[in-house]
Amino acid sequence: MKELLKELSAANTPQDLDNIKSKWLGKKSELKTLMDGLRDLPADQRAARGAEINKLRESYEDAIEDAKKDLSRRLINEKLANDNFDMTLPGGGTRPGALHPVSVIEQKCIDAMRRLGFTVTTGPEIEEPSYNFDLLDIPLHHPARDLQDTFWIEKDKKLLRTHTTSVQSRFMMSLKGDESKLPIRIVSPGRVYRNEAVDASHLAIFHQFEGLMVGHNIKLSELKGTIEFILKEIYGPNVKIRFKPKYYPYTEPSIGADIDIGLGWMTIVGAGMVSPQVLRNFGFDPKRVSGFAFGFGTSRLAGEFTGANMRELYGMDLRVFKKLAGAK
Question: pTM of the prediction?
């Protein structure tokens, strides 16, 4: 034991201690030889001799562990003594992060719609054609189903959703045509995927925000009022808004909403009254039930607020994210 303590006191590095441990406790150590020799002793002597060897091994292990702690403290103290860094200086602090502009715009929209009684509904991003196309009256020959527009995971069976309208399809089908559960007011924000050419203003992934209201005696005027409300919540009360006719497979009639914030007219929202056939697909009688739907790209809105293009918006530059804080 004295020899072990002497060697431990002379150790200057962790490697020295590892070598000492191997020498005294390893496979070629004297202690291992003593353990191997137990099999040659008479049976009535093995227990007592084994206990002695185990006690000796524990004393070796304790001594080596104490030496490791002492060496660690010594090395830290030596480093501090030779270091020019002033430990009494105040810390440098941490740089605050920022929410992604898309998240900020999305939450702003959600907060506005909650004031009108809408709730948030989510759904899977890997979708079935029935919810993404069929129930929305988008036929098999429609170009949106082609590989040029859709990422098919399993042809005609699984795809990456091309719009969050698929969430609305799932929600409406869950009602099973029960008019007693109407009216419903839902919004479905989330990521969507389209097989588009990637450039500064287009990516294969972006975010949408869609809304749906279905009930009795829902009118086009209510749709226009809802769109005006949410656009003024986003852009302020002085934003100029105009409506124009549009075409969408699952709304009839369909409209688009343009805004002017001093940069000319821009189309922001696509919307319309839910078509009678889509209502039938959902299990409701269009003579008794009506509804409206609208949708816009939160990615585009975030890009307009920050001045970032799509590549910058979905990059990892914190400066782009912080631009939204100063947007009016």
Answer: 0.67
